Chaperone protein dnak, putative
Amino acid sequence: MGTTKTCAAVLVNKGKPLWVDNADVVARLPSMVAFSQDPATGESTVLVGDQAKRQRDSNPRGTIFGFMPLLGGRHDSEEVAKLKQRVPYDIVKAPNGSGDAWVAIGGQAHSPAQIATFIIEKCKQSAEKHMGHPITEAIFAVPTYLNIDEATTTQIKEAARVAGLNVFRFVHGHVAALMGTAFWHMNYGKPQRVAVFELGGGACSVSFFEMTDFGLCELTSSSSDAFLGGEDFDATVLQYLMDELKKRKNEAVDLSLLDVAAIRQLREGAERAKKALDSVPTTEIDLPAAVTGDKHLTARLTRDHFNQLTKPLVDRTATLCELALKAAGPKKVDQVLLVGGMTRTPAVVEKVKEVFGLNPMEVPNPDEVVGVAIQGNVLQC
């Protein structure tokens, strides 16, 4: 379960993990749920994953995203206060008197567990379709910034139960990532200290593990920032595009006044540009015709300029690493593992190298590095 995406995987014939498509064309399900109301009939429809993401701009107050910090979260906590500043939907105190944080859509309150249920159901349905038989148990890896405590696990267990799943075990996200990568890529034979650096769509975290010579690992320390991720990089590029539009039109452009199609085009263009610059030095972004006066205009963004724009964000990842290193103690780090889609960004990789003094271990699909399927296979043996 990720801040911006949730994945499901199964292990077949004790072989390589087989990722379950959560939709026809993607392997990861956006962690979004939207409540859409038909203006004619008043009937409410729940949209999950990509369907919810597509109407994020047309239905901002009815689309729930980035809600994972609410799982087990108190309404009066600092984390919830920060989340309120980042999302357009309403976060309210639970009506049951528990003091928990819930979300409110159209005057109706929903618990974070209820929102999570929709996502878990979608994953379960995809897995069952793929396997051809019912699935009743699952191992859950949760974001590393969540404490796997009673408050959090109770809500996730309830979400899973309603979705028709029994939680077989909870796994620290970095333990799962380490297991998934170590299973295929790491060399055993001596005790070593391994750092796991994760930069995903919504959060950044660093953990340290002591590994034995035969592959057992012990988590020794972990640090997280639940509000630093790929979406912050997207927002930075989006602001750059708004500045470019201002230059072209000689007037400020108010994002809130643009039509939904134009906002979506700008947001998607920003995300595509960010990803393109992982592998090319320059990219171009089409600007919405509705804003440019039906002229076909593009904005050019180089990797160097992107690095300048996002330097404050990359520096924050370095600060987190340094804090984690200080907490972990002076012992030398032997290996660094990169996890999360944003670790494809060259500037992020270079910053990790600079902080740890090591070339990090890069895997082909860093946003799919979770080892819960492997652990499930081990536990079932």
In short: The first strand starts at residue 5 and ends at 6. The chain is about 40% helix and 25% strand. Residues 21-26 have pLDDT under 50 and may be disordered.
